[in-house]
Amino acid sequence: MVTDTEQHADRTLDELVAIAQQVSAAVQTVISGKPEAVRLALTVLLAEGHILIEDVPGVGKTQLAKALARSIDCSVRRVQFTPDLLPSDITGVSAFNQELREFEFKPGPVFANIVLGDEINRASPKTQSALLESMEERQVTVDGKTYPLQPPFMVIATQNPVEMEGTYPLPEAQRDRFMARISIGYPDRQSELSMLDWHGSSSPLDELKPVAHASDVRALVAAVREVHVSTAIRQYIIDLVNATRSSAELRLGASPRAALHLLRASRAHAALDERDFVIPDDVQSLAVPVIAHRLLPSAEAMVGRELPHQVLAGIVQRLPLPGK
Predict the structure, then answer these.
(1) How far apart are CA 272 and CA 178, in angstroms?
(2) CA 185, CA 164: separation in Å to the nearest integer?
(3) Which strand (E) or helix (H) includes residue 311?
(4) SS3 of residue 2 by DSSP
(5) Cβ neighbours for 169, distance < 8 A, ≥ 6 positions apart
(6) Fewest beta carbons less than 10 Å away: which of 27, 72, 97, 275?
(7) Angle of helix 256-272 relative to helix 214-225, nearest 10 degrees?
(8) Between the CA of residue 88 and those of 82, 127, 134, what are the distances in Å?
């Protein structure tokens, strides 16, 4: 039997990037005027990460998640997070089969290639934690038995800002498992006008057709893994995360997982630019979306209303580039 890797071994990086561009174009038919957000979402997918889309209601968080999922021909499950949602509603449950006279496992919605978690911070911390094992280890353990998750596997979660009523802040361990956080923001005037013309009579999601297959994504992921990262770039990433740990404006700096996620995302970013090597610009452009949501400000920074992404942007600006 021929595996996906063998089938796609003869594909060049250019061919794979062309597939990624088709996915990006398909998503942008639904989310207009936000190419940076779409590119970042695609970057995280190819870097084998998970993405957290955080913004105020009504700016297209769920639309972006759905559009990315529908543009790829793979299994997709959606979970609406609510205060009464239980962990077993996500992972699955063992139920007794009367005919077989034994317990059998009923898989939950996490057993899909792409899992859409809508308004994840409206569920209790206990339920939020049900995703921890699957996001990091790509497996689920129920009643002492472990079930692997098939690649590609990606969690796309949306959440409202924590100041919104009825929300629970995500635990630090949960935030650290998301490779990047996207803030979509309000559209510009022209994009919003186009949205009224296009979305006012029908939903573009209904017309969105898959432009890639799960096997294409696996081939893209394999190609991204081969992108070269020099020793100088690796050291630059380490210097960057170490600077967050020693900053007086932060009481919690970036974790070793953050450094690994930044490396993987930089590889995907370079591949989307049709390069087989990473440059400092890749790292700098991804530093804030990949690292900022993991940081906690110090009391002094909170008094001065200095947000973690502002502190991180200053660190990136001050840190010497590799070779300088």
Answers:
(1) 20
(2) 16
(3) helix 308-318
(4) coil
(5) 121, 162
(6) 97
(7) 110
(8) 13, 8, 13
> Token digits for 61?
């968080």
Give the strands of the sheet with 114-118, arranged side by side: 76-80, 114-118, 154-159, 51-54, 180-182
4-221 against 227-318: fold identical = no
Q: Residue 2's pLDDT is what? A: 41
Q: What gap in Å lies between CA 55 and CA 64, rounded to an integer? A: 12
Reading the block at residue 190, the tokens are: 């022209």
C-beta neighbour count of 190 within 10 angstroms? 10
What letter does residue 56 receive in the DSSP assignment? S
Helix axes 280-291, 256-272, angle to 10 degrees: 130
Q: Would you give the DSSP letter of residue 51?
A: E
The class level of CATH for 227-318 reads: mainly alpha
8-31: per-residue pLDDT in tens?
Answer: 444 677 787 889 899 999 998 888
Low-confidence ranges of the chain (pLDDT < 70): 1-11, 162-166, 198-202, 324
Instruction: Name the nearest CA neighbour of 221 among 23, 3, 71, 46.
Output: 46
Q: Where are the chain's structural domains? A: 4-221, 227-318
Round to whole Å and give the CA distance between 277 and 52: 27
Q: What pLDDT does residue 191 have?
A: 77
Backbone angles phi, psi at 160, to 5 degrees: -85, 155
Fold observed for domain 4-221:
Rossmann fold (3.40.50)
List phi, psi (to 5°) of 298.
Answer: -75, 170
What pTM does this model have? 0.88
- Distances, alpha carbon 191 to alpha carbons 14, 59, 186, 227, in Å: 30, 12, 10, 35
Per-residue confidence (pLDDT) for residue 183, from 0 to 100 = 86
Task: Give the gyration radius of the chain's Cα atoms.
Answer: 20
Query: What does DSSP assign to residue 277?
Result: B
